[in-house]
Amino acid sequence: MSIQQRQSKAPRDGMFGKGFCLVAFLLISAGICFSQSPPKASSSPQERPDLNGEWVMDSTLSKMGKEFHDYFLTIVHRGPEISFSEHYWNGKREVREELIYYTDERADIDPKMGHNDRTETRWVGKKLVHQRIGYIKLWFLVPPRSDKVEFASREEWSLSDDRQTLTRTITHDRGRGSKVVFTRVK
What we know:
Strand content: 35-45%
Mean pLDDT: 78
Helix content: 10-25%
CATH topology: Lipocalin
Strand order of the largest sheet: 4-3-2-1-9-8-7-6-5
Distance between the termini: 96 Å
Number of helices: 2
Radius of gyration: 29 Å
Number of strands: 9
Number of domains: 1
CATH architecture: Beta Barrel
Largest sheet: 9 strands, antiparallel
């Protein structure tokens, strides 16, 4: 058998040679990289507005019941923790509330929440979005019922470009909602 005949019968790199394996590896790697899901809608820390400050409701721009007045809000915003101290009047009743929202998946602190309520607070672009799914017991019906009705609400906080106006929009799956426009005091 001649040398040429031996070379033609010798295994070649062929389809599974080093070059093919390298090209296949690169194509598979590129496919994996490009098939990854896009980043979440949350914004980077540099894009997130600083909500710190003292705010007062502008009743001419707000869409709340007429019974709400003298609405003051203090926000302390440190990283993923955002504290809201609200003080307002609902008719003749004075209301003070303390809320703490976390944008790092910790449970929010809201005195109006029930034990089984689920919340999520995150940044979507430049808006702070707080979503809540809760349950209302129908104990007030006669005769009382033990079943619960589910409700959902979405709260969005957005700061104007000049950082002097803060808008809080609340929508509910049951139709009612509100819009509160605050102006910066300091």
